[in-house]
Design brief:
By secondary structure, the chain is mainly beta. The chain has helices at 3-10, 80-86, 159-165; strands spanning 16-24, 27-32, 36-39, 42-45, 53-57, 70-76, 95-102, 115-122, 126-129, 135-143, 175-177, 194-195.
Length: 197
């Protein structure tokens, strides 16, 4: 927290806003919890012209053990077409950020720098329809730490596999032999590969 934000939050009258950014394929939704907030060149509005408003944001869950922190957001798009567009697989993995911003009462500007509350990736959204035919799109957001829990199956200690992860990085190009017979990643590896450069 910057000293300016800390001072603003300790003031007798504090103006704060929640800022939400969801990066879709080819478009970024920027919403706030009321009014219009400008932060640099980005404008956050209470209603997106295409994708509507924030219906709810559930409490951020803390990761414990083998689960990562998570967040769920309900958006209320104005049309079924907009809701269907949000369900596209093309948006999977898009960056989702949630900040708590302090606003300068005189200028209306965001006081640098807002507090990042959550950073994650858009997972698999789902359409929810209520008995009164109202609808919304529930968007689960997984933490970037979710990737740490992916299995290492198929990972090999070879130049070919290394190039799939780090294109152009030639650190394994001259490897001529390795005493490691196990798959790279799982298990205890107590020997190092032999590199000839």
């Amino acid at each position: 927290m910057t000293p300016a934000v800390e001072a603003a939050l300790e003031a007798p009258r504090t103006l704060v806003a929640g800022l939400l950014s969801i990066a879709l394929s080819g478009y970024t939704i920027r919403l706030c919890d009321g009014g219009v907030v400008t932060w640099g060149s980005d404008v956050f509005r209470s209603r997106d012209a295409t994708y509507g408003t924030i219906g709810e944001i559930e409490t951020i869950s803390e990761g414990v053990g083998d689960s990562a922190p998570a967040l769920e957001i309900m958006l209320r798009p104005p049309t079924i077409a907009a809701a269907n567009a949000l369900l596209s697989i093309d948006h999977a993995g898009g960056a989702v950020r949630l900040w708590l911003a302090s606003i300068d009462r005189d200028s209306g500007e965001v006081i640098p720098d807002p507090i990042l509350q959550f950073a994650g990736e858009l997972d698999a959204p789902a359409l929810e329809v209520a008995a009164d035919n109202s609808f919304g799109v529930r968007i689960p957001v997984v933490s970037v730490f979710e990737r740490l829990m992916e299995p290492d199956e198929g990972v090999r200690m070879s130049d070919g596999f290394h190039q799939t992860i780090f294109p152009g990085e030639l650190g394994m190009a001259n490897m001529t032999a390795t005493p490691i017979e196990d798959i790279w990643g799982p298990g205890d590896i107590d020997t190092a590969p032999i590199y000839v450069g």
